[in-house]
Specification:
The protein is mainly α. 78% of the residues lie in helices and 0% in strands. α2 packs antiparallel against α3. The longest helix has 21 residues. It is flat, with a radius of gyration of 13 Å.
């Protein structure tokens, strides 16, 4: 497994983990946003720009959800 593949595996694993625990804390929503950004980076580095673009959109959506989550800054 090369470093790029390992990075992609880490990014999507973090996305899955954070998504699974989003209901426990708003910080998992932020973790999901960050891991989506990492997934987007992986997609662009790998040459799969549609994946990179969709993950970038998910990162923005998750950041908005984090900002508006209870207990967050408004």
């Amino acid at each position: 497994m090369d470093r790029l593949t390992a990075f992609g595996l880490f990014a999507v694993s973090a996305m899955l983990l954070c998504y699974a625990f989003e209901s426990r804390s708003r910080w998992f929503v932020l973790g999901f946003a960050v891991s989506c950004a990492l997934g987007s980076t992986y997609g662009f580095l790998q040459g799969a720009w549609p994946f990179g673009a969709v993950e970038a959109v998910w990162a923005v959506v998750a950041l908005q959800r984090w900002r508006h989550a209870p207990g967050g800054s408004r």
